[in-house]
Design goal:
The chain is mainly beta. It folds into 2 domains: 1-48 and 56-158, no CATH class; 173-276, no CATH class. The chain is built from 3 helices and 12 strands. It has helices spanning 63-68, 93-104, 164-169; strands at 75-80, 114-119, 122-129, 132-143, 146-157, 188-192, 203-207, 214-218, 244-250, 253-257, 263-268, 271-276. It has a 5-stranded antiparallel sheet with strand order 1-5-4-3-2. β4 and β5 (146-157) form a beta hairpin. The longest helix has 12 residues, at 93-104. The chain is elongated. The relative contact order is 0.12.
Length: 285
């Protein structure tokens, strides 16, 4: 997260209500009390380049934006900027932040950012939850192949650390653990099937992320045959004695797993459902 200090910082002249830009983001940048522990590291950090044959690590290349985050868990995503034309850059730092949302169309919250730090021709904007930075964007002015103000680096914590209502509006189903703590989507996530594949009747559950993730499918209408699923979905089963409670729950669903992890058992207010694992990951393009 980088070195931070407790300080009273006045960041005058940068953050003001109604600075969102012409596309209607009037609450993109807001006034308010700056964070009690603003990021004090340099805003211009080299973007680390991915090396090796595997996938880049989450947040790799996020530079100062990644250092400014205060995630409870790991960084979910981040990176540096691509090129853009003169018409894409902004004339103010606030318009540069607006350009980030216009150019990249990220899922991160598009409201409520505050200026956290200014250093020369760079400004750090932060989206804070309970006083801790969960999304950070560094905008810079007139960089090579990036005229005007626009994003230089960006980084975000997991959606489980965003405001619950916003994560829900983006379709995230955030599970909780036994103690009621929100669980990162990299540990457990679920979602209905994609509409453009006509899979709305199905539901997908994933445990873990990347190459080690495991998927389970609720398929009451039989969209996926035996060539895709090791066994059929069953909406009314007895909970096997060997199944164990993971402690994860979402609304009235609680998640249990078979000892060989081939089946997820979802206990609901109506009974127990068996969600089988597919023979290989199912995805909609």
């Amino acid at each position: 997260m980088g070195k931070r200090i407790v300080a009273a910082v006045v960041l005058a002249g940068l953050a003001s209500a109604g600075c969102g830009g012409a596309d209607g983001r009037d609450d993109l940048v807001v006034t308010g009390t700056p964070p009690a522990t603003p990021y004090v590291g340099p805003l211009h950090l080299p973007s680390e380049k991915h090396s090796g044959d595997g996938e880049p690590a989450p947040g790799e290349g996020s530079g100062a934006a990644g250092k400014a985050l205060e995630c409870d868990g790991a960084i979910l995503s981040g990176g540096g900027a691509d090129r853009w034309s003169k018409r894409d850059g902004g004339s103010t730092p606030e318009e540069g932040l607006n350009a980030y949302f216009d150019i990249y169309q990220p899922e991160e919250p598009d409201y409520g950012y505050r200026v956290e730090r200014r250093e020369g021709d760079r400004v750090l904007f932060s989206f804070d939850v309970k006083g801790r930075t969960k999304v950070a964007v560094v905008v810079a002015k007139d960089q090579p192949h990036r005229p005007g103000w626009g994003p230089e680096t960006n980084a975000s914590c997991d959606p489980s650390e965003w405001p619950a209502s916003y994560a829900r509006s983006k379709g995230y189903e955030i599970w909780e653990d036994r103690e009621g703590r929100r669980v990162p989507t990299t540990k457990v996530s679920s979602s209905p099937g994609a509409e453009h594949c006509d899979w709305q009747s199905a539901h997908f559950l994933s445990l873990g992320s990347g190459a080690h993730s495991r998927q389970y499918v609720r398929d009451p209408r039989g969209l996926f045959g035996r060539e895709s699923l090791a066994r059929a979905y069953d909406g009314d089963v007895r909970m096997p004695a060997e199944a164990h409670d993971t402690g994860y729950h979402y609304r009235d669903w609680s998640l249990w797993l078979s000892s060989d992890r081939s089946t997820a058992y979802v206990r609901t207010s109506d009974g127990v459902e068996a969600w089988p694992a597919p023979s290989q990951m199912i995805g909609c393009r």
